[in-house]
Design goal:
The structure holds two protein chains of two kinds. Chain A is α/β, with parallel strands linked by helices. Chain A is built from ten helices and ten strands. In chain A, strand 1 and strand 2 form a beta hairpin. Chain B is mostly helical.
């Protein structure tokens, strides 16, 4: 359970409960309300895609899930609750560092540390106090295997991570996220800087990771949303317009604004 | 419908829809001329239908090319995706309808070479119903009218009944009249008309999918029992 106190061993999210429950959330930058009355459930072990035009609030909501929004001055949840593992993580008493152990994040641009491949993955567990080499070795291998990168780097674990290709660097960042064993992985346009082949590797990885993690992905690529996600949420001007099973949304959206956006007839 | 941001996309979709409607018009015209050739013993008209079938075949290829082109270039979704998929499926049905018109024309040619067979006129109500089904199927697609599209299945059952009656009548005439060859032609023309009704019903199902995103094919709830069935 995520709590204000020191973190116990990370428990799994209770079976049958949504991984993330968003209840009537408003979010403001200063006096500007950028999310309005958002309510949605992210089911456990599913991939949920957030789509919508730039400025619609999808990345803001994603960043609320691990309190990355705290980094922006004057930005805050002004109403509602975001419940993860039974705790309202919008509550300021929740320690964001502890929260981020449970809710990892992969960014638009891969951002490996200027260290070795091994050190990049071992960084998280080390920060959490793990010193045993055998345990770190095991975590590094397991994380790289889950990120489907192990076979490509196992013979050069101590080479600089920055020497990897863009696609490999992004998968390394995913491995680094997984090394602290989160329950939820947030992805903010994880393939926008990748070529089609690297994108395919990451998409394939997302589908594999679903078995172990709940994933929320922000993407501007409609085909990517339709390929990798189980459910899709469409946002517009800070409102959640439609949240439905992806297949349903892409074949027969219920809302005209969703249909207009998906079919390119927006605005 | 609101304009697409990409004008080229709107152009491609309008072209696709236009080609399907052109094809539908031609297929229906071919059927009309085939039946006219049969009723009026017009050999020239029967030959024209057979010759003009190439045009429908060419349109089927074009609709497939246009559909593939839209899929590859624009990755359509929602109503646009349904339009592409249904256009390609409807064009296949239209091509087969035109093939049946050709079959009818070929049989009309053979019947022209024999003495007048008055029972040919018994085909009139079957043709009228088949033509109305086809007309309404095309309208259901063109106007995105799911209600009209869904109605075709039940109306096709009336054509099935006429088909059974006509086949029984012509079957009994084979023995009575001593003109077995000619009556066999009529039985096979009746079968073509019955198949046309099935294809019109298929087009109606596609129109329902286009308009309402519902797949009503093989839906057991739509099964209409014959009077003889328990």
């Amino acid at each position: 359970m995520i709590s204000a106190s020191s973190d116990p061993i990370a428990p799994s999210i209770a079976p049958g409960l949504p991984a993330i429950q968003v209840r009537d959330v408003d979010f403001c930058y200063g006096s500007t309300r950028v999310l309005k009355d958002i309510t949605l459930d992210v089911p456990n072990n599913e991939v949920v895609a957030f789509i919508g035009p730039s400025g619609c609030g999808k990345t803001t909501l994603l960043r609320c899930f691990n309190r990355m929004c705290d980094l922006v001055p004057d930005a805050r949840v002004t109403k509602g609750e975001i419940i993860i593992e039974g705790a309202n993580i919008a509550d300021r008493s929740i320690d964001p560092v502890q929260l981020r152990r449970h809710v990892g994040m992969v960014f638009q641009k891969s951002n490996p540390f200027p260290r070795s491949i091994y050190e990049n993955v071992a960084y998280g567990p080390r920060t959490l106090g793990e010193k045993r080499v055998s345990v770190l070795d095991e975590v590094v291998e397991r994380s790289l295997r889950r990120a489907v990168l192990w076979d490509e780097v196992k013979d050069r674990l101590h080479d600089m991570a920055t020497g990897l290709s863009g696609g490999q660097q992004q998968r390394l960042c995913i491995a680094r996220t997984m090394a602290v064993d989160p329950e939820i992985i947030l992805m903010d346009e994880p393939c926008s800087a990748l070529d089609p082949i690297a994108t395919a590797y990451v998409e394939d990885l997302i589908l594999e990771l679903k078995e172990h993690y709940t994933i929320v992905i922000v993407t501007h690529n409609m085909q990517q949303a339709s390929r990798v996600s189980d459910r899709t949420a469409f946002f517009y001007l800070g409102e959640l317009v439609e949240f439905a099973e992806t297949r349903q949304m892409f074949e027969n959206p219920a809302n005209q604004r969703t249909e207009d956006y998906l079919t390119g007839r927006f605005g | 419908m609101q304009q697409h941001i990409l004008k080229d996309f709107d152009h491609a979709m309008n072209t696709l829809r236009g080609e399907v409607l052109t094809m539908a018009g031609l297929a229906r015209l071919n059927l009309e001329r085939a039946m006219q050739a049969l009723f009026e013993r017009n050999l020239e008209l029967a030959n024209a239908v057979i010759a003009d079938d190439n045009e429908v075949d060419e349109l089927e290829r074009r609709v497939d090319q246009l559909g593939m082109d839209v899929l590859v270039r624009f990755h359509p979704v929602a109503t646009d995706l349904r339009m592409v998929v249904t256009s390609m499926k409807i064009s296949m049905n239209l091509e087969r309808i035109s093939d049946h018109a050709v079959n009818i024309s070929k049989r009309a040619r053979k019947l022209c070479a024999t003495t007048v067979l008055p029972d040919v006129n018994l085909l009139e109500p079957l043709y009228t119903l088949a033509d109305h089904l086809l007309r309404d199927a095309i309208s259901a697609f063109s106007d995105r009218n799911a209600v009209l599209g869904e109605s075709l299945h039940a109306r096709d059952k009336e054509l099935d009944r006429l088909h059974r009656d006509a086949t029984a009548t012509f079957g009994s005439r084979i023995e009575e009249s001593g003109r077995s060859q000619e009556y066999l032609h009529l039985i096979l023309i009746v079968r073509s008309l019955e198949r046309l009704g099935d294809m019109a019903s298929n087009i109606g199902e596609n129109a329902v999918f286009l308009d309402a995103a519902r797949d009503i094919r093989h839906d057991p709830a739509r099964k209409i029992k014959r009077p003889t069935e328990g």
